[in-house]
Amino acid sequence: MQNKTITPSLAGVVAALALTLSGGAQAQTAGSWLVRAGATQIAPQVTSGDLSAPSFTGTKVDVHADTQLAGGITYMLTDHWAVDVPLALPFKHDIMGAGAIGGVGKIGEVKVLPMTVFAQYRFLEANARVRPYVGLGVTYAKFFKERGTAALTGLTGGSPSRPTTLSAESRFGLTPQVGVSIALNDQWSLDVAYYKTFVKTRNTLSTGQTIDVKLNPNVVALGVVYRF
């Protein structure tokens, strides 16, 4: 249950758009502002600990992927070095039972707003049509609006009048990144990036039970960029 698949159609979209390139190369020179809009998918690669006692041995959780409208702002410090800040609507992830409770389905949900700042290095010349890049960032994963389901309440001995609630600790994580910018003309380009955030959290139930979860999500971001 802990194997996640990134939407395969994203690669096809990138390939199709790359074949339709026309016009001159985009100059990503020092002082340029790059603003993008598109979509981002976050697919957690979960390694779950066990829910603390009292619980069935091997009681674990899984977390499903989500895709949201997203974008970002990049500022070119030099022709090669840039600072990038991704932006997105909050992601909502379903929390599923796993391990000993793998058949119970959804036991909760949580919203997360990942806030990341990347330092990027862009290869090749500023006016190259295709510019691969690498980045390293720090992410603060802000978890909020956690909600348990009736299944969670039933598993933990709660009742309709006293349902089990949960909370997730917000944490920092390191985020390496690879990507490529493909010029469509002098002002517009296509940007596709993959990055992985190494982050874990602790979920605490209103019963006092806790469970530690490594999320370590794979992230794919696709956007159309306008250069100022």
Helices and strands, with pairings:
Blueprint: H1 9-18, E1 33-43, E2 47-48, E3 59-63, E4 66-76, E5 81-88, E6 91-99, E7 106-122, E8 130-148, H2 150-155, E9 166-168, E10 171-183, E11 188-196, E12 200-205, E13 210-214, E14 218-227
Antiparallel strand pairs: 1-4, 1-14, 2-13, 3-6, 4-5, 5-7, 6-7, 7-8, 8-10, 9-12, 10-11, 11-14, 12-13
Quick summary of this structure?
With 228 residues, the chain is mainly beta. The chain is built from two helices and 14 strands. It has a single domain (34-227), classed as Beta Barrel (Porin), CATH 2.40.160.
Sheet-strand content, in percent, reads over 45%
Q: Predict the CATH topology.
A: Porin
Average residue pLDDT: 91
What is the terminal-to-terminal distance?
A: 44 Å
Task: Based on Cα principal axes, name the global outline.
Answer: elongated
Number of individual domains: 1
Helix and strand sequence: HEEEEEEEEHEEEEEE
CATH architecture term:
Beta Barrel
Structural class: mainly beta
Q: Which percent bin holds the helix content?
A: under 10%
**Quantity of strands, as a count:** 14
The CATH class name reads Mainly Beta
Name the poorly predicted regions.
Answer: 1-8, 13-24
Lateral strand order in the biggest sheet: 1-4-5-7-8-10-11-14
Please describe the biggest sheet, giving its number of strands, its sense, and whether it closes into a barrel.
8 strands, antiparallel, barrel
